[in-house]
Amino acid sequence: MLTAQRRGLSDGGDLRRPAPPRLQSPLKIGSLTVASPVVLAPMAGVTNVAFRTLCRELEQSRAGTVSGLYVCEMVTARALVERHPATLHMTTFSPAESPRSLQLYTVDPDTTYAAAKMIADEGLADHIDMNFGCPVPKVTRHGGGSALPYKRRLFGNIVAAAVKGTSNSGIPVTVKFRIGIDDATHTHLDAGRIAEAEGAAAVALHARTAAQRYSGKADWEQIAALKAQVRSIPVLGNGDIFEAGDALAMMAATGCDGVVIGRGCLGRPWLFGELSAAFAGRPTPTPPTLGEVADIVRRHGELLASHFGEDKGMREIRKHVAWYLHGFPAGSELRRGLAMVTTLAELDALLKQLDGSIPFPTAATGPRGRQGSPAKVTLPEGWLADPDDCSVPSGADIMHSGG
Q1: Under DSSP, is residue 337 helix (H, G, I), strand (E, B) or coil?
Q2: What are the two backbone dihedrals, phi and then psi, of residue 75, each rounded to the nearest 5 degrees?
Q3: How many CB atoms are closer than 10 A to CB 124?
Q4: Which DSSP letter does residue 300 get?
Q5: How far is CA 173 from CA 101, 109, 263, in A?
Q6: Through-space distance between the first and last CA atoms of the chain, rounded to whole angstroms
Q7: How far apart are CA 136 and CA 211, in angstroms?
Q8: H or E element, residue 260
Q9: CA–CA distance, 220 with 234 (Å, rounded to integer)
Q10: Are the C-beta atoms of 170 and 5 separated by less than 8 Å?
Q11: Is the peptide bond before 99 cis (omega within 30 degrees of 0)?
Q12: Dihedral through CA 38, CA 221, CA 144, CA 381, nearest 10?
């Protein structure tokens, strides 16, 4: 257990007490050096090249830096190796992106090796992350995602295969996972130890179990426990970072080497500028007014249209608009119109109806994105019988939404 002093609990508070500014050294992930210890978590249908470009632009304009690691949305290793057109399109990077970071979902050491070698041989990315955090039933029922680290030997074989596939390329391999399946079945300490031994360059922990999904509070104590065990590579923390102060508090409380930002940046792509400033000890940029948010929405729509074409780009911007306007007074009719927008011209006309003078409201801070409720994790029959079984689960290499 963390001491009360280390957790910031000496007077009965919780881990999320604001921390003082912490000047941070660059984050070293294998051959890569990241100026700010901040990683954009891969999120399916969100962290495409349009969103990553927007985050980088806003960090540059608001903090004068582009200092974090912005990870592409997850792709399956099998689909990549088979060169599915939609998968290859998902791996699009802008010419300005460096380093280029790609996350793989994988269950099979052989396919993992082939995908990692393909990425290295064809120069598709500069960094590979692997997803063992997805909690959704359609994945865990086949033994994939957050169910897989329970199979220790299989997990180790997969990490080793990715490291072997990128050998002599300078491409570091990192691994993201959860605390475990549920409160009775924790796997993160074994997973961290195994990943470290098999050559991973860093590990990241989403401090929830698969059973929690995105509900409740992340258990930051488990990040500290992982950091205490994994000594030779960076340990990154993920879960409940919605403001720059949350990131500082997590690192102060757990000793972790960096933070991974997921739902906290939904509708707030400027968060990375705030994080960059906070870690550099500079004042946090003033949050945008509603007019500035409207300009950001317009830019996001433009980038999506460029990547997908206008029709699909406008379908994609709809879900983002709800996140952008969270906490702002915008009116139900205008929100409905934005939720059905079909063209950039229509988007422009609707955004002009917003009162641009409205400052960023307190109601727009705090948790956002999906939360849901905890639920029993669906697993293959007999999955928990033998943690050392290294058989590849059948049917698990399907597309899914990362975690």
Answers
A1: helix
A2: -130, 150
A3: 18
A4: H
A5: 10, 14, 23
A6: 26
A7: 9
A8: strand 258-261
A9: 16
A10: no
A11: yes
A12: -170
The answer to whether 390 is a known catalytic residue is no
Which of 72, 134, 256, 265 is labelled catalytic? Answer: 134
Q: For residue 275, give the H/E element and its range.
A: helix 271-279
CA–CA distance, 96 with 66 (Å, rounded to integer): 11
Q: At 34, is the secondary structure helix, strand, or coil?
A: strand
pLDDT score recorded for residue 17: 54
113 DSSP 8-state letter? H
In 3D, which of 290, 281, 311 has the Cα closest to residue 360? 290
Residue 65 is classified by DSSP as -
Burial class (CB in 10 A: 0-12, 13-18, 19+), 20: exposed
Token pair in block for residue 259: 């933070």
Task: Tell me the two tokens of residue 318.
Answer: 């709809």
Ordered DSSP codes for 189-257: HHHHHHHHHTT-SEEEEESS-TTTTT-S---HHHHHHHHHH--SS-EEEES---SHHHHHHHHHHH--S
| pLDDT on residue 2 | 39
Pairing status of strand 38-40 against strand 258-261: parallel
Q: 36 by DSSP, 3-state: which? A: coil
Q: How many residues does the chain have?
A: 403
Mean pLDDT, consecutive 10-residue segments, the chain of 403 residues?
33 48 78 96 96 98 95 96 97 97 97 98 98 94 96 98 97 98 98 98 98 96 98 98 96 97 97 96 95 98 98 98 96 97 98 97 86 92 97 77 44
Q: Cα separation of 389 and 370, whole Å? A: 34
CA 23, 36, 241, 327 dihedral sign is: positive
Tokens of 266: 């939904």
Indicate the angle between helix axes 49-63 and 271-279, nearest 10 degrees. Answer: 50
Q: How far apart (Å, rounded) are the C-alpha atoms in residues 106 and 76?
A: 6
